[in-house]
Each structure stands twice: as C-alpha cells, then as structure tokens.
Design goal:
Length: 353
C-alpha cells in the first residue's frame, strides 16, 4: 500500500504539474550514477580538524544503531549481538569511505519502513541496497517529482508503532532517572534534531549513572536467627552483637562516592555508641580505585586511634588481589573474614570470652 500511494502521488504530480502550478514540494533532482572508488589520504591538518566530529559521529551512530536494534529485538522477542552489530556497522563505514558514501548508521526511519514492509532477515537489507543501486544508477529521474509530504507521511506511519508509551510509564514507575533520560532524548530529538537528541540522551544517561554511583546504598546488617544469612536491620528481624557494627556497601568504591561512604560510616558510628569492631561487608564491591585504598587507609588509622578495629568480609577475589599489594593490607587493624557469618561467630566468641 505505501508503494501504491507513492506511485499514485507521483503520477498525480506529473499529470497536473502540482509542483509547478501549486508549489507542492518534491524530492527534486537526484544525481544519477554511482561514484567511482576513490582513495584520499588526508593531511595532518585535515585529520586534526576532523578527529573530534568524526568521533562524535561514530559515537552517535553506534548508540543509534544499537538502540534501534534493541528496540526491534524487544518487539520481536529476539536477542541481538552488539559486537556483531558494531562489526557490521564498522565494515559498512569502511566501504562507504572508499566509495564516496555518507556515514552509515541504523536509521530510525529506514528500519521502521523495513519492518513495516515485512522484513524478517538480513536479506531484506541486501534487497533494499540492490534496489537503491538500481535507482541511483538508472532510475533517479523517476523520483524527482515525488511529493515530500507523501514521503514524510510514509515514514511517519511506519515509525508510529515504534513509539512505546507503555515502556515510558513502566520506566517512570520503576526508575524516574531512566524515565527522565527517555523524555530528554525524545524532547531533544523534537527540538534539536536526531543527532543532538541522541547525544543529549547519552549525556542524561551518563549523568543518572554517575548520580547513582556517587550515592551508594549502604545497610547496617544483622543475622537472621537460626541461619547464616545477613539482612538489613531496617527490613528484617535480626540479631546483632553488642559493640560490633556490620555495614554492607552496595557499590564499587571510587573517588566520586568516597565522601558519601565516609559520611555514612561516621553517622552509623555516632548512632551506635560503644562500637569496638566495624565489619565492612564487601560482597557488592567489584572495584576499589587507588583513591579508595588511600581513604580506607586513613579511615583504618582514625578508627584505630579511637580503639575501633576495622574488619573486611566477603572481599571478592580480584579486589583482594589488588588490596594485597596495597599499603592498607599489612596495617589493617582487624581481620579479613571469608564471610559475614564467620566474622559474626569470631567476634561473637571473642565478646563472650
């Protein structure tokens, strides 16, 4: 049906001279023929002036391509291989570079039209490419008087099913930071254009990610009676040890969130007077940067001066491998326990003795 409408609109434009008599906007002249292969070795000044915009174009093209592929895969209940997607994208851009082509990316309108036409396999893209080669090589003149309004309507109708308001409502109910990133991306595309809108969406997503990392969740733990499981004291009925504070950090530690971690540690120590042992449960810590090691070394020294021993529990292997080569490891005032329960038993036994 879209093809018939395009054909009918073009015939009506030609028959009644709608573009000449009534000013109907049409596609206009399309250059005929394929460009010959061409190799151009740019100079240093050219590379320097193009490196930043080329990087931005590559980034936006990558995000746009993966986003479109993921959206279509979700609709069809399929899975994508991001590495394969990006390999194909890179190969297509290499070919385009030697044939005078535009930068290649997974466009929203082209993908939506392909899906609306019933595309199911990569063969549809090959057929589209061959048809486009045929059009550019010898039939470009046929499209010169195609009305732009009809072309735009075809793209809009094909893209309409891609608008998923239900996903936005679900994102708003689950995580408003993600929902705001979605709204910012959509608004940026409408106001500033596709490339700027996607760039804005990437920035908003990174900002939301950095915000979450900078305010890590931390919980005071206790042991569920009759088990070896430790849970948040605010959510479960648990048992604790007098003079021992178990605190779990649910985020990797880096320079951006150490201030929040230190502040929470001080708050919990102030709320729990008489603490002799502080056990940091590190089960969710996948990384500690050099600044974090330095800050924990200073924390270890300050706690030791106050008569509080610092213990670590459930330290992941890669984190422990790094810590063993750090200044913190040999001066740690407490012990490193295999599990929170091992720390509970050891420190509980010491308290009873």
């Amino acid at each position: 049906m879209p093809l018939l409408i395009v054909l009918l609109a073009t015939l009506l434009t030609v028959e009644f001279d709608l573009d000449v008599r009534h000013g109907v906007a049409v596609v206009g002249t399309v250059v005929t023929g394929l460009p010959p292969p061409n190799f151009f070795l740019p100079g240093f000044d050219t590379v320097r002036s193009l490196i930043v915009p080329a990087f931005l174009m590559a980034l936006i093209g990558m995000v746009q391509n993966i986003t479109m592929a993921q959206a279509l895969a979700i609709r069809r209940r399929e899975r994508i291989d991001p590495n394969a997607e990006l390999t194909g994208l890179g190969a297509a851009n290499i070919v385009a570079a030697f044939s005078g082509g535009m930068p290649v990316g997974g466009g929203l309108s082209r993908s939506a039209i392909n899906v609306a036409a019933g595309a199911r396999t990569p063969l549809a893209t090959i057929v589209s490419a061959l048809v486009m080669i045929g059009v550019v090589a010898g039939a470009a003149g046929w499209f010169a008087r195609l009305p732009l309004a009809v072309l735009a309507a075809t793209i809009i109708m094909a893209a309409m099913p891609m608008i998923d308001l239900r996903a936005l409502r679900q994102a708003w109910a689950y995580d408003r930071a993600d929902a705001l990133a979605l709204l910012g991306t959509a608004g940026g595309v409408l106001v500033f254009g596709l490339e700027t809108g996607i760039g804005l969406g990437v920035m908003l997503s990174l900002a939301a990610l950095l915000y979450r990392f900078s305010l890590p969740h931390m919980a005071v733990l206790g042991r569920i009676p009759g088990s070896e499981h430790f849970r948040n004291v605010e959510r479960h009925a648990v048992e604790t040890l007098p003079g021992v504070l178990f605190l779990r950090i649910d985020e990797s530690l880096f320079f951006g969130n150490l201030g929040a971690v230190e502040q929470r540690l001080k708050q919990e120590l102030e709320r729990t007077p008489g603490v002799r042992d502080l056990v940091l449960v590190m089960s969710a810590v996948n990384l500690m940067d050099a600044t974090a090691v330095e800050v924990f070394g200073e924390l270890n020294r300050e706690l030791a001066e106050r008569g509080i021993r610092l213990h670590l529990a459930e330290v992941k292997g890669p984190v422990q491998d790094r810590l063993q080569h750090s200044p913190l490891w040999p001066v740690l005032s407490g012990e490193v326990f295999l599990s929170a329960n091992a720390a509970f038993e050891a420190l509980g036994g010491a308290a009873r003795r």
